[in-house]
Amino acid sequence: MRITDWLKTKFKNIKLFFKEIWTEGKKIDWPSREETIRYTLIVIVISVAVAAFLGGLDFVFMSILEKFIF
Predict the structure, then answer these.
(1) Which H, E and C letters describe the chain, residue by residue?
(2) Cα 58 versus chain centre, distance
(3) Nearest-angstrom CA–CA distance, 3 and 70
(4) What is the dihedral of CA 44, 50, 51, 57, to 10 degrees?
(5) φ and ψ at 27, to 5 degrees?
(6) Which residues have CB under 8 Å from 39's CB, separation 6+?
(7) Backbone Cα Rg of the chain
(8) Which of 17, 35, 50, 62 sits CB 3.0–4.6 Å from 31 for a disulfide?
(9) pTM flag (> 0.85)
């Protein structure tokens, strides 16, 4: 097999790969703008709640530790 034939085969495979990606990408059921905003807000609210909870635990444990250390 010559190098030119090998390159043609590789480029054909790469072209087929990206064509299949494009075809599969069309099948994705993307969320609407409203759903995306709602899900983003849910993630932000849960993240803030978890951060506040963990911060509260940290404060409580540090207060307990300070009583034993000092």
Answers:
(1) CCHHHHHHHHHHHHHHHHHHHHHHHHCCCCCCHHHHHHHHHHHHHHHHHHHHHHHHHHHHHHHHHHHHHC
(2) 28
(3) 77
(4) 170
(5) -80, -10
(6) 31
(7) 27
(8) 35
(9) no
C-alpha distances in Å from residue 38, one per residue of 3, 8, 21, 33: 54, 48, 28, 9
How many residues are given for the chain?
70
Q: What angle do CA 7, 14, 19 make, to 5 degrees?
A: 145
| Measured distance CA(29)–CA(8) in Å, rounded | 35
One pLDDT digit (tens) per residue for the chain, 70 residues: 688 888 889 899 999 999 999 999 999 999 999 999 999 999 999 999 999 999 999 999 999 999 988 7
Task: Give me 44's structure tokens.
Answer: 């932000």
